[in-house]
Amino acid sequence: YGDVVTHVEGEPVVNFSEFDAALDRTNGRSVELRLQDGTETTLNRSVMLTRVVPDLMSNVSVSRDRATVVRRVNGTAVHTERDFARAMSDRRTAALETNRGSATLPVGAYGNVEPDGPMADEGVPTGEGGVVVMSVDGERTPNETAYQRALDGVEPGETVTIVAHTPAGRETLDVTAVDDDGAASLGLQTRQGFSGGGDSGPFGGLFSGEFLRNAFIVLLLPFFGAVAPGEAYNFAGFIDPVTNFYVVSGPLGFLGGGVFLLANLLFWTAWINLNLGLFNCVPMFPLDGGHILRASVESFVSRLPTDSGRRLTSALTVSVSVVMLLGLALMVFAPQIF
Question: 269 vs 15, 63, 288, CA distance in Å?
Fold first, then answer.
C-alpha cells in the first residue's frame, strides 16, 4: 500500500503532521527521506497548480490527467509552496511559467462582485468577469487570506480605498463597507489562493482535510436547492462522469424511471428476506433456530447416561430461548433506560 517514511533529513517523523512540519523547515528543493525498510531516497519537490481562473490565465491548462507544474514566477525558480507564496506576494503583477503554458496576471484576492453590494454600487461589473483586489487602504492583499485580514480592521460603514483589477482595467475605488453578520464586507465573494489560483499542497492535498470535507459537501449538494431555493449559487447539476447514477441508458433505457422502481423493489425484497432469514436463525422458539437448537440438544443428550433426557433437553432449550429473548429486549430498550 505504499512506502512508510520514518525520517526527513535525519529527523524522525511518526505521523503526517510531523512529516509536513519537517518539510516546512527544509528550504531546499531536494529532501532526503528514510523509509521503514531502511531505504534512503531523495524527494524533489515541485509546486503544482490545481485550479486557475481562465480569464486571468487563459494560456495555462489545468487537468487531472497531467500535472501543471510552476517552474518560475517573475523569472525566479520556485519549488516549494513557501517559494511560490514569497514570489507572488512581492509583486502586483506576476509572470508565471509552467510546463503547460505561461501567463502574466495581476496578483491579489480574486472574487466575484455581489449584485447590489458596495463594489457593485461603485460601478464594478457583476457579470462573468471577476475582480482582483490588490490592496485595501494601502495594505497589500495578494491572496484571499490577506484580504480577509485587511477587512478585520474595517468597521461596517467605514469607507476604504481599494486598488483592483476589473474587466475595465486597473481602478482605484472608494468603497463603503456594509455589515455582514457582524463583519465588514465590500460585496466580493472571494476564492482561496493567489488571484484565484491554488497550489496542491503536499500529496495533492489528500491529507489536508479538504479531500474529506469536499467529499462530504458533494454528498449534500443535491439537497441544498431544497433547503435554500432562493440561493444565488445553487447546485448546477452532476457532471457527465456520474450520469450513470441517475440516467437510465443502454438496453433498459426504454423503461425510463421504471428501472429505478424495479431496482428499489428488488433491493428491498432481497434485504428484507435476508434479515428475516437471519432473524429466523435465532435459537429461540418458535423460530426455526429454536427447532434446530432442540434437535441438536436432543442428539447430544441422547448419548448421556441419563433417564431424564427429555426433561434436560427441554430445560436447556427453554433456558437458551429465555436468554435470547432477554438479550433482544435489552438490545431494544436498554439504550432508552440507561
Answer: 46, 43, 21
Residue 128 pLDDT = 65
Band (pLDDT 50/70/90 cuts) for residue 211 is very low
Give the 3-state secondary structure of residue 143: coil
What is the model's pLDDT at position 208? 43
Of 106, 100, 22, 18, which Cα lies nearest the Cα of 59? 100
pLDDT at 271: 93
User: What secondary structure does DSSP assign to 91-141, as a single string?
Assistant: -SEEEEEETTEEEEEE-SEEEEEPTTSHHHHTT---SSS-EEEEEETTEE-
Residues of the chain above pLDDT 90, percent: 4
3-state secondary structure 202-248: HHHHCCCCHHHHHHHHHHHHHHHHHHCCCCCCCCCCCCHHHHHHCCC
Pick the residue with more confidence: 241 or 179?
Answer: 179
What is the distance between the alpha carbons of residues 83 and 140, in angstroms, rounded to a whole number?
18
pLDDT at res. 202: 45
Higher pLDDT, 198 or 211: 198
Paired strand residues for 185: 178
Q: Which triple of cell numbers denotes residue 126?
A: 457583476
Angle at 314 (CA atoms; ends 309, 319), nearest 5 degrees: 130
At 214, is the pLDDT very low, low, confident or very high (cuts 50, 70, 90)? low
Q: Regarding predicted confidence, which is higher, 184 or 240?
A: 184
Separation of alpha carbons 100 and 66, rounded Å: 9
Write out the three cell numbers for 260: 429505478
- Cell, residue 27: 528550504
Mean pLDDT of the chain: 79
Three cell numbers written together for 227: 433547503
Do the beta carbons of residue 118 and residue 178 sit within 8 Å?
Answer: yes
Separation of CA 99 from chain center: 27
> What CA–CA distances, in Å, run from 235 to 104, 196, 228, 246, 280?
32, 20, 11, 16, 45
Beta carbons of 106 and 197 less than 8 angstroms apart: no
Q: Which residues pair with 199 in a beta bridge?
A: 49
